[in-house]
C-alpha cells in the first residue's frame, strides 16, 4: 500500500519532517525552518497535517514489526493536557523497558483500563508477571480479566517500587511536549502521541541492541514503510 500517493511532496521530505517532529521537541515552524535550509519550502500547517495523518499509520506499521519481548510487564498511565483538560495516556513496557502498547483515553476509569489491558493481553498473550499501581479502577479491570481467563491470579502484582521503570519511561513523553503548543483535540493528540511513542519505542530498541550505526528516526521510519 502506497501511503504517500497523491501527496504534493516526495515521500522522503514527508518522512524527514514528521521524523524530526516526533523525535525532538520542535514546533511546526521549527520543522519549516529546517526544511527551508535544505531548499524545501513548506507551510507549517502542511507539516501539522502530515503529523496528524502519519502518526496513526506509523503506529499500525510499528505493531506489525514488533519483535519478541519479555513476559514481565509494567502498566501505568500518565497525564496529557488536551485543550485545558487532563486526558490519560495508558502505557505498557516489558522488564527491559521496551514498549508494548499505548493508548490515549479521555478518562482514567475502569472502562479505559479494561479496554487497554484486554487489547494488550489479546495481542501479546499472557504474561508471567503484570505489575500495576493500586488505583481502584485498574485493579477492578485486572480482576475482571482474571475471571475471563486472560490473566492468571499469580501473575498480577501491585508494587510501586517495581513500577518505577515505567514511571521513568514517561519522562520522554512529558519532556517532548515542553516547547510544543498544547493539544487542541483528543484526535490530534492521539495521532501526534502515536508518532512520538513509535519513535521512542524504536530508539529504545536500537539502544538495547547496541547498534554501532546509532539511531536515526528518519531511517527507522523509512525501513517500516513498505516498498
UniProtKB/TrEMBL annotation:
Offer one Pfam family short name for this entry: DDE_Tnp_IS240
**Where would I find the DDE domain in this sequence?**
71-205
Keyword DNA-binding appears in the UniProt entry: yes
Q: Which UniProt keywords apply?
A: DNA recombination, DNA-binding, Transposition
Show the InterPro entries listed in the entry: DDE_dom (IPR032874), IS_Transposase (IPR052183), RNaseH-like_sf (IPR012337), Transpos_IS6 (IPR047930)
> What is the protein's given name?
IS6 family transposase
Native source organism of the sequence: Lactiplantibacillus plajomi
